[in-house]
Specification:
heterodimer, A: mainly alpha, 65% helix, B: five-stranded antiparallel sheet, 46% helix
Chain lengths: 450, 135
């Protein structure tokens, strides 16, 4: 009776987690009708997920566990996000974002606590995430079949045509796909039948193919580094792990090469731009010559044509923006500008950089809640990851078999933070995946009381 | 049994105290940053002198919500000095381009912290005149 109740509640929580992640992705969909429905819906689903997670936790409260240090650091970080409204440049926005992020973290912690002594429960939650990623990948593919112009961002002089699937931006869907890669890979390795293995391998192939087609370099790197971690952490023989790692590197090479095939449009004029001539009778609209949003690194300063040649490894544009974000953060280094104020605190002045955020979540956290906030965030991540890594490399046997997937997912989500700004936004596509995988890692190796 | 509980109680208390201490620290940082940026804006304003002068040779309109700018020539550089103000006439950004890279002083993220003002009507009239001449 108790077991069937547990199964029912687990499935309810897993199904709601699936819907929450899908709703978050729909909230940034390329289809305006879907966005109008999903944007409020994702918050409602997060609340429902919290309620279901709470019911699951209370129904088996004697089995609910969370490590004290995990609870302490996360509580401190969440409290800081809310308290930072006291010095924020937008107190209301800070309060809203602090509360929603805290809600997301608390919901993930409530779910993870229920899985602390139940590997089956943990596996169900991980599978719910994998199912959500698969649904988003499938939606993107179907949209491409039905309306390719919506699913593909047209080529420009800066970028080749990029697959964006169901999302508004090629980088958005790829974030979730990158988190899904280690989850699918783990299923490939641990599948008990050849047909299941083939099915999960096909799923992994779709994830990799869509990321490659999106041209999202950060997602590709994050996904494959996470795969390497899964290969290394997998509890198999050393030679098999080495073989898996080599296979991962080989597929990465192919996927990277595939990413270089499409080309941006050729710039019609590559002539260096001359400094505008000064004429007292002809005043200048400066925005046409030296736009504020692209001044730094722009042609007016560099005396070049301004044509950007993006390659697989070029990073100068983003590095400029990161340096600018750090410099802005150093203006208020201890406590920052207030949680969730990244769009206001970071002014995009960087040529070829198309975002209102620094596109690095760690710089974003520093900008918003200063060094104190960044230290608390990193401490929270560390106390979550360490138990998982320890249990993984110690070898936990069958009950801990889910760990490589969990740690791989968390690693991918954390690596994505190097190229995307999303830690501050609970409605972001990868937010719940980050915290659920991290917190599932944090409950690894917990024992039933004797 | 009591020790761990006491330890966690102390840890919680320390966290609360640190968060409370951060409130004045965050506000102090906010004021210090605003003071620093406003000092930079004042320097550029002093370099420019009166808004209406022959070296005024460029403008921007609505580059950020409600933000307009006036640019002044120095030497051969038509964009050497720039002053941006918001819809209330608060000066929120100034840029000095006389070096090898722009020197930006900005309080754009927190315009309410600016206590430097220009006569917005006069500034808009200057922009209108420049736009008219540019046609």
């Amino acid at each position: 009776m108790s077991e069937s109740r547990r199964t029912t509640l687990d499935r309810a929580a897993a199904a709601t987690l699936f819907l929450t992640v899908v709703a978050a992705s729909a909230g940034s969909s390329v289809e305006p009708g879907v966005v109008a429905f999903a944007k409020p819906g994702r918050w409602a689903l997060l609340v429902v997920l919290g309620a279901v997670a709470l019911v699951r936790a209370l129904a088996f409260c004697s089995e609910w566990r969370l490590r004290p240090w995990v609870a302490a650091t996360l509580s401190a970080y969440c409290a800081l996000t809310i308290v930072s409204a006291a010095w924020s440049i937008h107190p209301r926005l800070t309060l809203e974002r602090g509360l929603t992020v805290s809600l997301g973290v608390v919901v993930a912690a409530t779910l993870a606590g229920s899985a602390s002594l139940s590997p089956v429960t943990a596996r169900r939650f991980v599978d719910a995430l994998l199912a959500a990623v698969s649904a988003v990948a499938a939606a993107g593919f179907i949209l491409w079949l039905v309306d390719a112009s919506s699913a593909v961002q047209s080529a420009s002089v800066e970028y080749p045509a990029r697959f964006q699937g169901f999302e508004q931006n090629p980088n958005t869907g790829s974030m979730l796909l990158a988190v899904g890669m280690p989850l699918a890979f783990d299923r490939v390795i641990t599948a008990r039948t050849a047909s299941a293995r083939a099915g999960f391998a096909a799923l992994l192939f779709v994830f990799v193919a869509e990321i490659s087609a999106s041209g999202s370099r950060g997602a590709l790197a994050a996904g494959f580094l996470a795969l390497l971690l899964v290969a290394v952490a997998w509890p198999g023989s050393r030679s098999r792990r080495a073989g898996l790692a080599l296979a991962v590197v080989a597929v990465l090479a192919v996927a990277s090469w595939t990413m270089t095939i499409p080309h941006a449009l050729t710039a019609t004029s590559a002539a260096p731009q001359a400094l505008p001539t000064v004429s007292p009778s002809r005043p200048i609209d400066a925005e046409k010559v030296i736009p504020l949003a692209g001044e730094i690194g722009g042609p007016w300063w560099t005396h070049t044509s301004g044509t950007l040649h993006r390659t697989l490894v070029s990073s100068s544009t983003r590095l400029r923006a990161w340096r600018g974000g750090i410099a802005q953060g150093l203006g208020r280094p201890i406590a920052g500008y207030g949680f969730g104020t990244g769009e206001s605190a970071f002014a995009n002045r960087y040529y070829g950089f198309h975002s209102d955020l620094p596109e690095n979540s760690y710089i974003g956290v520093f900008l918003q809640v200063g060094l104190v906030g960044l230290a608390l965030f990193l401490a929270s991540v560390a106390v979550c990851l360490v138990p998982g890594l320890r249990a993984c490399f110690r070898g936990g046997g069958e009950p801990e078999r889910r760990l490589p997937a969990t740690i791989g997912g968390a690693t991918a989500a954390l690596l994505l933070g190097m190229s995307q700004s999303y830690f501050h936004a609970a409605g972001s596509i990868a937010f719940m995946a980050l915290w659920v995988t991290l917190l599932l890692s944090s409950v690894a190796g917990m024992q039933r009381p004797a | 049994m009591k020790r761990p509980r006491t330890r966690w109680f102390v840890t919680g208390a320390v966290v609360i105290v640190v968060l409370l201490v951060l409130i004045p620290v965050g506000r102090w940082e906010r004021n210090r940053h605003a003071h620093h940026e406003l000092a930079g804006i004042r320097r550029v304003l002093a370099e420019i002198g009166p808004l209406d002068q022959p070296s005024l040779d460029a403008y921007r309109v609505g580059v950020a919500p409600g933000m307009d700018c006036l640019l002044y020539e120095r030497g051969t550089n038509p964009f050497a000095l720039e002053l941006c103000f918001d819809g209330s006439g608060r000066v929120i950004e100034a840029i000095d381009r006389r070096g090898s890279s722009p020197h930006i002083s900005s309080i754009r993220e927190d315009p309410g912290a600016s206590n430097i003002r220009v006569d917005r009507e006069k500034a808009l009239a200057l922009i209108a005149r420049l736009q008219q001449t540019a046609k």
